[in-house]
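Standup notes, protein team

Yesterday: finished cleaning the Martelella radicis set.
Today: Galactonate dehydratase structure.
Blockers: none.

Input for Galactonate dehydratase:
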Amino acid sequence: MRTTKLETFMQRVDDRPRLLVRIETDEGIVGWGEAYNHGPDKALAPVIEYLFEQFKNDDPRRVTFINQKLIQQSRFPPGALGLAAIAAIDHALWDIAAKAAGVPVYMLLGGHVRDRVRVYCGVYSAPDPEEAVPAILKLNADYGFTAFKLSPYRRNLYNGRWGALCEEAGNYLGELRRRLPTDFEFCFDAHAKIYEPNQALQLAKALEPHDPLFLEEPIRPEHIPAWGALRQQMGTVPLATGESLYSRYEFLALLNARGADIIQPDICVVGGLTEMRRIADLADAHYVSVAPHNPMGPLATAHNVHFCAAQVNFRFLEYKFAKEASWATDPYIPVDGHLELRPDRPGWGIEIDESRLKQDDYIHWERIMATKPDGSTAYP
């Protein structure tokens, strides 16, 4: 079997651009992968098309060989765009390999260690309790969710006293605890907006009395020693991070610094399933669990389902509903707070309607740059 053709399709999932990759073989088997457009979004397709020349006519079932080949062919270590491109290719190759064998992808990983994958729902904001409580109860009633992710910021975090913002966040979690079932779990994503570690510690201490599931990415990812120091002072609040890290070497540095209780690598960022498993195994050796970052489309969720099904130290998967993704005819939908495996479907277990991809459905999106009261810029 040989790879013969690669195509990219610029699509949208709700208000975000998403890039799909299709790889064809001389035996008629087709594989699909989803790319993370986290850089200049239109720059990704040419990178993927360029990389195809490095493995055109190779046996696509040699997934690890091709993944390593694409990483090593670059003189300098690939970064955000390079590894996102490699991830999409890697996933299409796993799809082909599993379809050729007639099994789900997770069976090529040693089989599933769990029968279904637990998910938590990303709310991504901090709605008032009067709005949040009925919305959370409906998500529980409709899909069985018992874990939810919110923002800790109840207002503009650059205006007013920081201690007051932290107090408001703690009171907010306390109010949700008072109004909702005791077995519900709440985590908070600070989106790496906090510059000073001491401020992150203040926020953690405010949340701590109400038992948060974890505090995610409170500070910037670049200086690993700061994560180790922060973790040692955070008490019983689990510290989670990893969506902004790329390779197993960066994760190893984080783990060696004891900088996280839970790591959150993104399978579409780190170079694909091949590299994701290496990262997760490193974490397992440090008694650290894995909760993949997954704000993507239905195909990326499928990639994650198979990783999570086969990974021993998996904890839970982020899930985001896709309202506009017509190309995914049968996405994984939560049942009882879990995504069920599809053992009778080879590959990723999801069908792509190619007729919906005939025209690029591109939408431009970029983060809004935050501005402080003095006019200086801040992380969005």
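Follow-up from PR in the comments: The two ends are 46 Å apart (CA to CA).
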